[in-house]
Amino acid sequence: MLISQARFQLLIRIFVVCALLCGSMEAKAQQTTQVLAPGAPGNDAHWASAAKDGVGTSNTLESKVWFTLGDGALMEVYYPTVDVANVQALQLVVVSNDDKRVEVESEDTTHRIEILEARALSFRQINTARSGAYTITKTYTVDPERNTLLINVEFKRLKRGSYSLYIYYDPSLNNSGMHDSAWTQADALVASDSDKASALVASVGFLETTNGYLGTSDGLVQLRKEGRIGDVYTRAENGNVVQLARVKADAPFTLALGFGKDTTDALSSARASLAKGFDRAREEYESGWHEYVAKLRRISTKYERQFVMSAMVLKAHEDKTHRGAMIASLSVPWGGGENANEGGVGGYHLVWARDLYEVATAFEAMGDRDTAMRALDYLFTVQQKPDGSFPQNSWLDGRQFYGSIQMDQVAYPLILALQLVRTDEEVWRKHVKPAADFLIRHGPKTEQERWEEEKGYSPSSIAAEIAGLVCAAEIARKNGDEASAHVYLAAADDWARKLDARAATVTGRHGDGNYYLRITENDDPNDGAPLEINSNGGTHDEREIVDAGFLELVRLGIKSADDPLIIKSLAVVDQIIKVETPNGTAWRRYNMDAYGDRSDGGSYDAKSGRGRLWTLLTGERGEYELARGEREQARRRLDAMLGFANDGMMIPEQVWDRKESPRPGLRFGEGTASATPLAWSMAQFIRLARNIEEGRNLETPQPVAARYAQGRMPLESDIHLDIADDEALLNLDIGAQLHAGGQLPAGSRAYLFQETRARDIVVDREGRFSFDLEVPQGESVMALATFAPDGSSTFNRRVLRGHARADNEAQAARNLSTNLERRLRQATRSPTIEGNRAVFFYRGAARRVEVVGDFTNWNMRGLVMRELAGTDIKYYVRDFAARARAEYKLIADGEWLLDPLNPERIDNGVGGHNSFFSMSEYRAPLIRGDEGERGISVDALEIKSRLLDGTRRVWVYLPPGYKESNARYPVLYVQDGMEYVTRARATLIAHDLIKEKRIAPFIIVFVVPVDRMKDYWVNDAFADFMATELVAFIDARYRTQADRNARALMGASLGGVISVWTALRHADTFARVGGQSTAFQIDNERVVGALSRLDPLRRERPFKFYFDVGRMESIKEVNRRVRVMLRAKGYEVAYAEGETGHNWTSWRDRLANAFQEIWKD
């Protein structure tokens, strides 16, 4: 029977309608079978893998939805802010109607991602069944007008067969896997948790749906069990819910996933976007990104696609409610390993001030200053705390997540403010000054460095702090606050000067032993203190652990790129943590890092991980090489970063570090599961690309570079500060007047900082100054900043602690153990020693008794003794090192006196007679007899000096065997000759060393000064006398070895200064020089400046140096600085420290070692 074409088409339409109605009736019939799903609350939730192939959001404020893609599926979707995840996964499930085989996209297909438009965040996932039976193609876009994600889906059979197609949707609303409720509502799957809701609809409708709990009653469990939805549940409440819907598989369709404050809002958004249509939404979406990209700066073609993608990805990390807030990554590191049941998991969708600085500088570099400005506004107006600091990290609304303080994060906003020219009065007063003041009060030591694990002195953290303070000083000056500016600059100078001595070892285990450490908890990088790697990396000698954080010193303008210590440290870094991958060179954060995938390829679990290679470090190395003028090498680093990016052009946090792959997906030089993309990595690519275009590092703050890297490090000026000892300042009475003063070079300026206020201090024509402070309650900080006319500076910070007088007395009483108090009442000799504690005490009627000595730097204001209740005893308790020996006096009602209860006294040449004591492990060297008994004699000679216009005396010691031999001997010229012979017993010590064959015989010439201060105060005439007149005089009278390597100079304190100065002035005459407690601080560190100018590349006349110092001496800092500076330049430096002060006994104790080291070859 024939029918007309029109009749045929009508029959077809009727058939389709009936089919849809029947399907709908079938679904409704099934969905009335049961209502509430069993198995609540379901299995634990886990966030999706952090390895994303693509991310996206609309470049509009109206649409507050962000999506992420990976493993062939939709992963987290964020709404309404970029720190609130609402989706675990949305993917397709394919069931073979022939054999009931169930295949899930993420597990049973191979994945490919396509970038559909180079100037938009448009992605397409193409998944091919491992069996080759079908492909699934999904294209993603966001409706720019609504909170809706649209997915265009096409299922294509490649082999014959019948399949059922399901949509698997796992909502995790409100940042948590639990507490969701889900149900079927007409033609939609809706879910809610508190004020977050989602709605999923399809252009072709759903043939059937079910709602259940993960792993117990969800639809996928049913499919795997029966190959179909066996039990239809219309609702699942308060648990980890999963929704499943069957759709027609024979034509492309569109899914709309809408979000809102409730299900009505979400469903309205989804349906409206679906009605708009995928193509129109995609056109609007891509147009928005085209407009943004068009405003960006251009770079070379080779890098343009990655540059543009990186720019868009960074822009996509900005929140649309909290403008300027940008999270670290749209992921939770290693996702699946993190329990997602509750909403407290921050992952990387938090804001770090450090990361935001890195991203903001990238925005500035690529031409989007508006976004960079918003980032700074966010830092200052949302994140910054009332005390000026910034949280370790925070949610978008500023609520703190982790609670540590990282000092670089306090400093970076200051650098950014100057870079963006945000120097107005409000920014200065409300934000810059509080942050800079916080650095003054608490820096440079940090609770955590940039890897968020360790406390101490970190090169990278200190680099940021120095730069931050210099930038803050510039802003202060623009706002007329010269006092604050000078305080900031003085602190920056001080921290810059002391950085190497605090953070670079000279006794290390790598290279030649001289390099920057990752971090050192105390200020001694040479003591081998144990460092516990807080990512479960074990405990190690701190000198073993290195990272490349010191490159921040170059990037931020504090060190030049060719600084010898930087170059040495790079060689160590490359030896220890560099890895060559197929995609280019990469570095670990540090050796022994445990923050990374396990060796078996499993996710980091805080127990057995291993840190892999961080892509951003390759970019940092490129910036260093650019600073050094190695532009092509910097390009190779950029090429490596290109190679590290995945097919979606997402640059990961870490890449796999070896050829061996324990599981699929881990490939040498490609991303791990840690976090992809990492905003910092994408920012680093942008910044390096732009910097290469410009030929310089754009973010290097010029005032910092001008002050340090391009100039000379400001030296420390002379200062005598008369203020109470640090310990005494911690036990002050509230309301007491603290008086201090001192002496500076004439023409100096001084500034006083107390907590948040800085002011000028009057300095008279002779350089004298004084000031008074009222002691506040609790702990406060005061700092004195000074500048000499030659630009040298000082920074002295003190912590004050004001207590009620009764509290101070009670605290002092608590410092005494019951046993020690009993002993003190019975004691007749001071101090009493118990373990590492010494208790000084005084019996008598004096109202105020203070202790001064080596351990107070002989300050005019000492440690104030407390009264022992019910007695005439006053006492002071202090801890000392077990090997300590110290000299001291008492001040009783203003009168300086020896300790009447201590019979141990000595005339030690420094300060006259002193009392002294030693702790349990102190051992004096064994010196037998005296010179007469031992048959040791010295020749006393006089020499007429034309240069010094007078006669000078010298004593000459000749070694054993000199008279019986025709040999020639090396000569050591020693300053303060009389004291070295009589107080330091130099001839006896040398004689024993030679007799015991611990040193080769040598002559000692002991030089006797006429006016010590004049002769030794960097006196050119005296140096010339030593090198020309005296050397010729000695060579003519004794059998000497007349070459520079056989001549040495040595002295103590000022004698050490003139010894070094003479050697530098007459390098052709002397090759060896030593100093004991060398007073490098004098004359505004003039000698230090001369040593800093020694050229490490032209050492035709190399020096051998020896220095020692007591740890109780204030000059130990400058001696440590000189040591590390000379080692960095390649000079041989022997060095020793003792638990002593500035006196002849200390120098005697170290003299044998000094002789041996000076003559060691």
Summarize the SSE layout with pairings.
Elements: H1 5-31, E1 34-36, E2 54-57, E3 66-70, E4 73-78, E5 87-96, E6 102-104, H2 105-108, E7 109-117, E8 122-129, E9 134-142, E10 148-157, E11 163-171, E12 180-185, E13 188-193, E14 196-202, E15 208-213, H3 219-226, E16 233-239, E17 241-247, E18 253-260, H4 263-276, H5 278-294, H6 301-316, H7 353-366, H8 369-383, H9 407-419, H10 425-442, H11 459-478, H12 482-503, E19 504-505, E20 515-516, E21 530-533, E22 538-541, H13 552-555, H14 564-576, E23 578-581, E24 584-588, E25 613-614, H15 615-627, H16 631-644, E26 654-655, H17 679-694, H18 702-707, E27 720-722, H19 726-729, E28 732-733, E29 737-743, E30 749-754, E31 757-761, E32 768-774, E33 778-787, E34 793-803, H20 805-814, H21 818-826, E35 832-834, E36 837-843, E37 849-853, E38 863-864, E39 866-867, E40 873-879, E41 885-892, E42 895-897, E43 905-907, E44 913-918, H22 931-934, E45 938-945, E46 950-957, E47 971-974, H23 977-982, H24 986-995, E48 1003-1008, H25 1012-1016, H26 1020-1037, E49 1047-1052, H27 1054-1065, E50 1072-1076, H28 1082-1092, E51 1104-1110, H29 1116-1128, ...
Parallel strand pairs: 1-16, 28-34, 47-48, 47-49, 49-50, 50-51, 51-52
Antiparallel strand pairs: 2-3, 3-4, 5-6, 5-11, 7-8, 8-9, 9-10, 10-18, 11-17, 12-13, 12-16, 13-14, 14-18, 15-17, 19-20, 21-22, 23-24, 24-25, 25-26, 27-29, 29-32, 30-31, 30-33, 33-34, 35-36, 36-40, 37-38, 37-41, 39-40, 41-42, 41-44, 43-44, 45-46, 46-48
Helix pairs in contact: 6-17, 7-8, 7-9, 7-17, 9-10, 9-11, 10-11, 10-12, 11-12, 12-29, 15-16, 15-17, 16-17, 24-31, 26-27, 27-28
